Each structure stands twice: as C-alpha cells, then as structure tokens.
Amino acid sequence: MQPVVILSFSAVAAAFAFAVYLYFWVKKQPCENKRILEVSSLIRAGADTFMKREYGVLARFAGAAAVLIFLLLPEPIWNGRLSDHIAVTAAYLAGTVLSAIAGKIGILVAASANGRTAEGAGKNLKTAFLIGFRGGSVMGLAVLGFSLLGVIAVLLITADATILLGFSFGASSLALFAKAGGGIFTKTADVAADLTGKVELGIPEDDPRNPAVIADNVGDNVGDVAGMGADLFDSNVAAMASALVMSQALDGGLGANTAMVFCYAALGLIASIIGIACARVGKKGNPTGALNASTYTTTAVFLALTAIFTCFFEGFQWRIWGASAVGLIVGVIIGITTDYFTDDSKPIVKRVAHASRSGSAFTILSGVSYGFISALPAMAGIAVSALCAWLLCAPLGEGYALFGIAMAAVGMLSIVGMIISNDAYGPIVDNARGLAEMGGLGEETIRIADELDSAGNTVKAVTKGFAIGAAGLTVISLLGAYMSEVNESLSALGKELLTGFDIMDPTVFFGILIGASIPAVFSAMLILGVDKNAQRMVEEIRRQFREIRGLKEGKEGVKPDYDTCIGIATDGALKELIPAGLMAIAATVLVGFIGGPSAIGGFLLGNIVSGLLLALFMSNAGGLWDNAKKYVEAGNEGGKGSDAHKAAVTGDTVGDPFKDTAGPSINTQITVVSLAASLLSGLFAAFSLFG
Amino acid sequence: MQPVVILSFSAVAAAFAFAVYLYFWVKKQPCENKRILEVSSLIRAGADTFMKREYGVLARFAGAAAVLIFLLLPEPIWNGRLSDHIAVTAAYLAGTVLSAIAGKIGILVAASANGRTAEGAGKNLKTAFLIGFRGGSVMGLAVLGFSLLGVIAVLLITADATILLGFSFGASSLALFAKAGGGIFTKTADVAADLTGKVELGIPEDDPRNPAVIADNVGDNVGDVAGMGADLFDSNVAAMASALVMSQALDGGLGANTAMVFCYAALGLIASIIGIACARVGKKGNPTGALNASTYTTTAVFLALTAIFTCFFEGFQWRIWGASAVGLIVGVIIGITTDYFTDDSKPIVKRVAHASRSGSAFTILSGVSYGFISALPAMAGIAVSALCAWLLCAPLGEGYALFGIAMAAVGMLSIVGMIISNDAYGPIVDNARGLAEMGGLGEETIRIADELDSAGNTVKAVTKGFAIGAAGLTVISLLGAYMSEVNESLSALGKELLTGFDIMDPTVFFGILIGASIPAVFSAMLILGVDKNAQRMVEEIRRQFREIRGLKEGKEGVKPDYDTCIGIATDGALKELIPAGLMAIAATVLVGFIGGPSAIGGFLLGNIVSGLLLALFMSNAGGLWDNAKKYVEAGNEGGKGSDAHKAAVTGDTVGDPFKDTAGPSINTQITVVSLAASLLSGLFAAFSLFG
C-alpha cells in the first residue's frame, strides 16, 4: 500500500498545485471593459446569493440527516459502539463539506473567467479558448483532487469501507440538491428569458433589457458549474467507495486490490493533468476538435500508465486492468453515439429541424422518438461493458466478478477531471458570449464567442452521456456493495444470507416495479417545479416591461430590476428541490420496511433501469432540440423568424428542463437511493413487514 | 373437469347467441338519412379495403412464421415428433384466424351501428346510447367467446398447455400488427385532418370538405375497434394460457386447478353478459355513469358467482379465489386512478389547460410530468396485487404462488367482455358524431352525439389503464410460464435447471438493460411512422384544397377525393408496422442466442418494467392532453381560437400517437416477446454464446 499512498498524495498535490497555477493564470488575463466588469460582478453577486441561501438550506438538511445518521447508523445506537457512530457521521459531514467547497471553487473561477474570455475573444479564438478551458479545468482538478483526498483520508483513518459509504452518501445527498436546485434555477431563468425575450418581444438572446438575463447567466454557473461538479464528485466518490468495499472484502483488509483502486484513481488524475496541459487550439482552429483531442489524449495516457503500473506492481491483475479499459472505452463510445444524436452536422438534428416545418407537434414527436432510440446504444454499451468486466474477472475467484464491474466504473470515471473541465468550459464561454453582447464588444468578438459556445454545447451533450454511463456502471457496483452490506447485517442477526435477488421472488418484483416508477415521478416533480417557477418569472418580466418606462425601447440609463428575477429563481428553486429529493429517500425507506432487504435489491434495480432509460432519453432529446433550434437559426429550413423556427423554439423550451434539470439529476437520485439503501441495510434486515 | 367443460361451452354458446341477438337488434334500428347511408358506406368500404390489405400482408407474415414454427418448435424438427410440430403450427394458425375473425366482426357491427346511433341521437339520448353500446357489445362478446372457445378446444384436443402457448402466440402476433397497423392508420388520418382542417383552415372537426375526414372515421374503426379487440383477445388468451401451463404442472394433467381456470373464465363471460344486458341510461341520464355502472355490476356478479362456485366445487381453493378477487379489484382501482389523471372534471386536466396559456411548451411539459406521475399508482397497484396474490397462494404449496399471480390476471381480465364493449362503444359514437355533422342532423342531435362521445373518451382512458394493468399481471405470469418451459428443455438436455433469475447474474443483468430499451425503441418507430405518414397526408390534403376548385368554399356538389387519403393511410401503416414488430422479435432472438435462458429472463423483466412505465405514461399523457383540449374548447382558459387553444391542440396532436398508437401497442409487444421467449426456450437452452 505505501507506494500507492505516496503516489495518491503526490497526484492530489500536483492537481491542487496545477489548479492554483491555472487560477492565477486566468486571473492575470486582462479584464478592463467597464460594462463587462459591472455585469460580471452582478453575475457573481447573484451566484453568491443563491449559493449562500442554498447552502444555508442544505446545511440545515445535512444537520438533520447527520443526527439521524448518528442515531441509526451503522445500526441503532443502543446496539452499537459510539465510536462507529461518530465516524460515520463525521464522514457524512466531510462528504457534504468537500462537495460544497468544490462547487464553490468552480463558481469562483468561472465568474472571473467569463469576462476575461469575452475580452480574450476580442483578441483571437486561441486566447479566448485557453481562458475558458483553463477556467473550467480549475474546477475539474479541484473535484478530482478533493474526491481522491477525501476517500483516501477516510480509508486511512478508519480502515473501514462502510464508513466510506457514509462519506459518499454525504457527497451524493449534497449533489442531489445542488443538481436539482441549480437545475431548477437555471431553467427557470432560461425558459422565462427566452419566452418573453425571444418569442414575445423578438429581442436577441442576452439582451441587457431583459430583466431575466442576469439570472440566466447566474443559472449557467449554479446549474452547470456547481451542479455538474457536485454530480461528478459524487459519481467519482461512489465508484471508488463501492470498489473499495469489494476490494476490502477480497483483500481481508488493505491489500493489492485496494492498492489497485487508489493507484488507478491517482493515475486518472495524472492523466487528466497531462490532458489539460496539452489542450490547445490554433488561431483559426476548431475548439470542438481541441476539446475532443484532449479527451482522447487523457484516455490514451490513462490506459498506458495503468498498463505500466499493472506490469510492475506485485498483485495487480491484468484481467482487472482489462475491466477498467473496457469501462473507459465504452464510456468514450457512449459519448460518440450521444454525439450522433445531438450534433447538428449529423442527420438526426437535421430531420427534427425539418419536421419543425409542419409545426411544433412534429418537433416534439420526432424529438421524443429519437430521444427514445438514442437510449438503446448507451444501455447496450453499459450492458456489454458490465458483461465483459464480469467475464474477464470471474476467473480470478469469488467476488472478483463484481469487483471487475466496479473497476470498469472506476476506469470510466478516471478521466472525469477532463470531463468536468470540458463541462465547466461550457457555461464560462456561454456567459462570455452574453458579456460580449452586453459589453458591446462588436460583431467579430461575438462571432468568436459564438463559435466557442457552440463547441461547448456539442461537448456538453457528450459529457452528459458519459456522466450517465458512468453513473450506470457505478450503481451496478453499488448494488454489489449493498448486497455485501446487507449480508453483514443478516449474519450478525443470525438470519439466512442473501445469495442474490431473484426476479421471481415477489418481494423483489414488488421492489422493482416501485423502484422503476421513482425516477419518473422525481423528474416530473423537478419539471413541474421549473414550470411553476418559470411562469412566476414570466409574469414578473412582463410586469417590468409594462411598468418600467423606456425599458422596451432601450432608453439610455433605464435598467431592468435584475435582482427580483434572481430572487424568484432562488426562492423557487429552494422551495421545489426539497420535496423531490425527500420523495426518493422516503420511497426507499418505505419499500425497505415493507419488503425487507430483497425488496430493496429489486427497488435499486428498477430504479437503475428506468433511471438510466429516462436520463438518457431526456438528456439526448433536450440536446437534440437545442441543436435543431440552432440549426434553424443558422438559416436552414426557413431560418430565424419562420414558422419552423417558432416550432424549434418550442422544442428547445421543452428540452431545457429535460436536459438541464431532470435528465442529469436522475443520476444523482439513483446514487443517493443506492447509498441510502446500503447505509440503512442493517435496519431493513432487522425490521420489515414481509422481508 | 366435465361439469366445467359443459359450463364453459354453455357460456360460450350463450355469449354467441346474445351477440347474434344484439347484432340483429342493432340492424333493426332505422337508418334512412341518405347522406348518412352514403358516408357510412364509404367508411365501411374504407375499413374493408384496409382490413383486406392488412390481413393480406399479415397472412403472408403468419405463413412464414408458421413455416418457421413448424420447423423449429417445440424443438428442431429433426429431434422431435412430427405430430407435435403439426399441433403447434395448427394452434398458431388457429390463434391468428380467430383473432382476425373477432376483429372483422367488430368492424362489421361498428360500421352498421354508427349511422343508426346518429339517427337514434335524433330521437333521444337513451336510444342512441343503447344502439352504440349494444353495437360495441357484439364485439366484446365475440372476443370473449372466441378466446374461451379456442383455449378450451386446444386444451381438450391436445391436453398439452405448451401447444396453448402456440395458440396464444398466434393471437398475440396478429394483435401486435393489428394494433400497430391500426394505430398508425388512425393517427395518420386524425393528426393530418386536425392539422390541416382545424389549425390551418379553421373548419370544424368532421367537416365533409376535409379530404381526410373519411379516413379519420375509418381509422377509429380499424384502430380502436379491430385493434383494441385483437389486443384484449390476446391478453385474455395469454392470461388463460399461462394460468393453464401452471395449473397443468400442479395437477399433473387435467385437475381441479385447471378446472378452476376454465370455470372462472366461463363465469367472467356470464358476468359480462349480465352486465351488458343491464346497461341502461335514462332519457336525460348520464352515459358515463351508465357505462361505469355496468362495469361495477359485472365486477360484483363475477365476485359473487366465483365465490358460490368455489364454495361448492371440490378442490377449488379459497386462497386462489382471493387472488382473482385482488386482481379484479386492483384493476378497477387502476381504472379509477387513470380517470383522476385524465378526466376533465378533475384538477389535473384543468392545470394542463391552464398551463397552455403560457404556450405550447408548457402544455407539453406539464402533460409529460403528470403522465410520468400517473404511472406510479398503476405500477404500485400491479406490484401490490402480485405481492398479495403470492402471499395468499404460497401456503398452498410449491408452484401455487406463481399460479396465484396468473389467477389474479385471469380475475382482472374476467370482465374483459364489459371492457371491450365500453371500448368499442367509443369509436361507434365518435363516428356517429361525425355522421350527424355530415348528415346535417341539426344542433340538438350533434349535442347528444357529443355527450355520448365525451363519455366514450372518458371511459376509454379508464379501459386503457385497465388493459395495461391486465397485461402487466399477465406477463408476470408468463415469466413463470417461461421458466417452467425452459426448465423442461434444460432437463431434457441434462443441463442444470434454473431456480430463478438473479439480478446479480451478469447475463440476467445484460438482458434487463437491453429488454428495457426495446419498448422505447418500439414506440419511437411507431411514432415516427405516424409522423412520416401524417406529413405525406398533410401534403395531399393541402394539394386537394389548392387544386380542387370550390372545395374550400364548400360549393354544392364539389367533393374531395377521400380515397387517396385512405390509400395513403393504408400504405403507410402497412409499410411502418412490420419493422417495429420484427425489431422486437429479433432482439429477443439475439439476446437469447447471446446470453442464453437466463439473459432472456432478464430481458423479459426489463421489457415488462419499462414497457409498463412507458405504456402508462404515454396513454395517460395522451388522454390528458386530449381532454385538456376539450376543456379549453368548452370555453375555459380563453376558449376556442385563443392562444391557449392553439397550445392545447399541439398537446393533443402530440398525445394522439402516444395514446392511440405507441402506448397501447406496447402491451402487445410485451406479450409477443414473452410468448416468443417461451416458445423458443428450447433453442436458447440448447444453443447460446454465454448462457
């Protein structure tokens, strides 16, 4: 273990050092335009306000959860040892705090990178790209560094992987609310701004007269930067935690398999650093190409480094390396198929744009259809990678097969630093485009910012597919972690152990059907939240245009009241995010106490299967509609202002909460439910109606 | 067995006699308006053309399938006995033929009842209701009679329930294509007629100037009458077949449990006859109430009769009666919850109508959300009824638990005669409304026809929920039938038997993920089929209005070319229905040969779970949008012509293929795949890559 621990700490140190270097590099870039400085500080203030209030609410929630955890986990406190309870609770709180810090850092750097990227775009594409990408990379490195640091610290201190599940639960419960809250905020503002601005008044996107425009930009930050960061922090920690639960069982403590998990995670961090450092685009180059090239570089470096270490380290198994490699390659393939369904240079987007000529109903119908179809390759990819990992590792002995699946997830997530960097790049350049418009930087600058933004959108679709795929593999391995946790409890109680979850067992089946409904209800609650909230904001925007004199005409010195809009988005998001999250957890608890441990196995399966299907459907359909609208706006099928354009805008509006609120939040919902099930397994084993 | 056989044959004879009586009663009603006679013969001719061509295509498909079945089932012909092969093939063909005849009868009577209902509405509500309902009942009784007759004949002749699976497969493969083909036809015409007529030209629904109006009315018949009849014929046969496979295993031949299946089915038929005979509405009464009252009557009669027979027959078990009762009651509850989400006197429809004020994107978003939420109660209902049936029957001994679930499905489907009657009533009165409009029967008549039509729509949503619930329970028991079939093959091959399908087995998991994707892809193919086809028809309608002089103005003697529109709907439906059906079967075969019998178990589970979820979502969201539009048209939220109305029409257009094409076809897709898996289980047991 020792060399691996040193390697891990060095990797974390390198990541933090590089992140600090990049942060100051970004800060050093010039930002002088007054209007941009002003707007950019408005955005930062808005984001701060939201984050402060959100974290305030979450702190109370986490506090309440911590009390429950302290009393009930790993078993009711009157049966257990006090030190265990303190450890789980502390790990839980550490998970929430680290996740929050990572999100905060992302917002911090994104808010200073956006204005600088806008001014960079005034110089040339190359500079602007570098500022945007490096800004995003700070977030990527922070997330990856904190997750590895947290996991290794918890494991070295407690030497107990169950405690790690507590840490992971902290990370994912925060991610659930950050993703859902951020998602509701961002889409409230986006939908309301588009509906009133683009559709009703016909003013351009990011027009400073629109009272929702600052809220829209704030939303990009809190939804895509902080939310997505928390989401991938959570997936990454969960993947490591479930792999470590199994490796500890295999090693009977800390051994070669555990070392392998850390070693691979550390090498993923190093590969991401190299990939980030290599990202470049020529003066007239193609930013999408540059982002993809760094992803492929990271992938290749990771595969090479892990092969070398597997070759030289004692006890590292080639078959497990194979499982990681399969996971990573399938992740990249899922990304590519997602791209096929959402890229506007490919046929599907063109077909949806063409269908829009016949009216918005056809935009919706064709988008829904292709969204459904797009789920198949990703589902098949996850299925095949799980099967391959299993077949590769099963010959190593009992327990290795599931460990193989966990390592496939670790492999898929190894390049997550790169993925987050690409992802956080998106909202930075999106904001930069808005700032260029509001700062009046001229057409050429806006054109460059547009090009950067479009690359961000394309890459975003791919990274979302990747994130969902990774979550899929992770939760499969969490299912394994759940089984080993529940068996520990069952053997302590002297009850019969579970050997699996048989579909033909009625309690399992019962759990499956209920579990499968939850992601649908969860998504519906979030979408209705956006819907309700956006309608409130639409009323407010209409009011401002009606009541503030000279606003519509753009009279010099007349400003809309941005803050009220930010306030509406904030209040609504906080009000709507809690019930959806609690519903998912409550359903888990209910099914567990009714059907017992087997029902929960089924519940998790149903949840994973329908969750993956719906998440893929919604993310891809949303991306597809977004790009179909952009394709029409680029002058196709009648171009801007045509009936096809109106229909495409309707598609985009429907797609917004699909792809940025519900779709990606489902990931986190699945992880939270899986971890809650593992943590509560002792209670379900002891008390249940039919279990 | 003997008394039960006599009872069954008597019930079948009574059903047929009653159906013939009702048919002639309908025929006796006056129908004298020339215009109605003319249009109604146009509708009949259109339906005939479509059915002839559809059955022509299906006959070729069934012939090819019969050859494959003859060569390969129950095992490759070079291993088996010739007589078995002949029996399975003959049973398969009998299943397709009976299903086709039942559909044909429905069309026949619906096409003569529609005009008479329209004229009856000229007299009063009471008469018109009776004609419409009794017309529908002929179909209901025919379907139920043929299904019981077919099942009992096959079982008495062959005494082998596996052969019965062949019969059931025949019924369901025909149903798959009838439902999908009819569904594509009806929605092609409906969507195209609405888009060009209502939206573009602002002429009323069913305006005779619209070239698609006859095709639209034909569609109601081929989609809702023939298609829904084939669907429920199939579910009913499949439920009996799977119950009989298990009862034979329990009885070791024909015994008390087998007798119980037949007895309950016969009593269901008798209860339906009584329910149909009792249906009445006062002169100013409420038709929805009348339809629901007969459903409740049938339910009560069934429960009472089965209780009496269970009391007096030797070997009939009360616990099994309990399972049937649970199934039936849960079916009714599912119907009621569906009603809550789709009835325009309840809050959900009003909310969606209200959201339409903000634009069509909000109509879609809120409809999708409530559609998702509406799946939960039905899924939970199915889960709970399966769990209760299991818990009730498990104490009777090994094998009884699954038999209990099968009997819950039989119980739920026992009132299917009543359900089909209600369902076929819908298109008859829908047609009648159109005929009243086209025949110029005056406003009061149209108002009465409207009232009848609205009751049809409300009841349709409920029956659809019921049909999906019944299919859900049926396929769970088919999963049990599949396991006993596959174990028979495995034991013949000397391989290890399956004890269940463990989620943690990677081949099972592989199957689940692929199986879950299939209903999504299947629905997408059907929706895209409607989409493509409707666009072709829209072009044609626009052409006619452009080129036929005086058509738009409604000049005396100028008629549109109805036949070309019927031709487009027919050709398109036949072209699009085959690939979707084949895709589902091909996926089954592929997964079976890759992953073996366990993977197929998982595949079926994934298919059931995601299929139920999507079917409920799409049927309910579609019904919701339909009624939200009607609610706006009734003068709410701005009424006809307002922006809210336009948005609501978009919702309805999206909902049409959801609720009438994809949603209800998924049922059949699941059944077909389940039966194909059972029939092919011998092949999968013998040959597979990783099984």
Characterization of this structure:
2 copies of one chain form a homodimer. Chain A is mainly alpha-helical. Chain A has 17 helices and no strands. In chain A, α4 runs antiparallel to α5 and α4 (125-158) runs parallel beside α6 (213-251). The two termini of chain A are 40 Å apart. In chain A, 68% of the residues are buried. The model of chain A has no long low-confidence stretch (mean pLDDT 87). At the A-B interface, α5, α11, α12, α14 and α15 of A face α5, α11, α12, α14 and α15 of B.
Count the DSSP helices of chain A. 17
Which strand-content bin applies to the residues of chain A?
Answer: under 5%
Secondary structure category of chain A:
mainly alpha
Estimate the mean pLDDT confidence of chain A.
87
Oligomer: homodimer
Shape descriptor of chain A reads: globular
Number of β-strand runs of chain A: 0
Helix content of chain A: over 70%
- Which stretches of chain A are low in confidence, meaning pLDDT under 50 for 5 or more residues running? none
What sequence of helices (H) and strands (E) makes up the elements of chain A? HHHHHHHHHHHHHHHHH
